[in-house]
Design a protein that fits this description.
515 residues, mainly alpha, 3 domains, 82% helix
Amino acid sequence: MTNESLFFIEEVIVISLLIASIVAIVTRRLRVPYTVGLVIIGFIITLIAPQKFTFSPQIILALLVPPLIFEAAFHIRFDDLRRDIWLILLLVVPGVILTTFMVGWVVSLGTGLTLSAALVFGALVAATDPVAIVALFRRLGAPRRLQVLLEAESLFNDGTAIVMFGVMLGIALDGHFNFLQGVGQFFTIAGGGILVGAVCGAVFSQFINRIDEPLVEATLTTVIAFGSYLVAELLHVSGVLAVVVAGIVTGNVSSRAMSATTRIVVLNFWDYAAFIANSFIFLLIGLAIDLNSLVENWQAIGWAILAALLARAASVYGFSLFAREISTKWKHVLFWGGLRGAITLALALSLPREGIFADERGRLQAMAFGLTLFTLLVQGISMNWLTRTLNLIQRSPAQDEYELRHARLVTSNASHEYLRRRTQEGLISEHVWEKISNELKEQSNSLTESLKKAMSSDPIVEAEELDTVRREGLRAQRAALTGLLRDGVITEQTYDALLGEIDSALMNVDNDPKF
């Protein structure tokens, strides 16, 4: 590889990260899912500077998907997973099979595609990707159980959908189907991936449990994430399912033995890794969209969207009957939260150019991209409205009133501080400052009393502020301690000892069930 190629790759990475950072800031203020913003920006770039943008699907599957999946799986607790494990299993095994055949049948009926090619399309769109939805839920404070349902289903059906895609692709290319052989292949590949992930997670967790080096432990989790994928693929089983299981095992076994400092380092590392992976994946989706191809195949895309919505509805509303405690509102969210993303894109790009796909590959890819674009731009953006309409985010009147009074007090104090500085600079006379200062002090005292009453009216409001204050105070201590080390006031030994105490207190605040 030449120096020019290396510089070009570096330029692309730097520009992409800059774009991702700007999009993250803008979308947060606009209350739009971050990943949706990246797709839109990528799409706009292709419109402004149209060019043929191609890349290997392995860039997504082998390089970007493992950190994304591992980070999500690392946060899933066994107890949360156990509560709805049967519904999740129904959605990720029979649900994926139902989606494959239902989408295939509807698409074949509406577009004239051969049934074998349509079934391949059904498999490649069976994987859901609710990254944007889960991120939105975390920000809005949606019920934890609903987040786990969406995320766990997505993590596992990514793997089962890829396995199903391989089975359907083999049938389409060979021209015949052996039911028992197909079922055996499905469960062998899926079960093998789960076994590899469990072994890798358990083995490396024992190494992590025996050391207390934050950077080394973070590195070992990286080895687990990518290593489990590579080992599974070498054994011709599901690499994605291996990463999912390895992440869950590591998050539940290793994290308990990690010191508070190590856990914070590992969590921050994987948050950043997931941010980077998400940024590149959804920017690539936007860049890879071919507008002309979408326009030419708009009818086929319409059938694909209809088929995917019908299959998602049948899967969610049908299989959730076996989980009676799941409310109807949650079913609506699970249905509308069935977005498509990275896996669908990668599988569409991996379609072969020979056999029955020689003439239909372009149309199938356009359908996959069109469906992905619809779910991200329509379903993703409207999810905020849906959750508020269904009243999933519960906020008491006391919380709203406290927030209003607190904002008034903060703005009043900001006004007082600003005018005080202007007086010191000589821009406001002392005579006028004395008058206005008394008025602002009276206003501040009145607002302070009003805020105290709002806080005392609801213990949850007071608990939330105590939580915030404790966390900010501990972070300030952490920053001050780092400053002491940097200035040479304390040794690294003292720094490590005190840092462990602060991080332990910080983790206790984060994990306190009262909050």
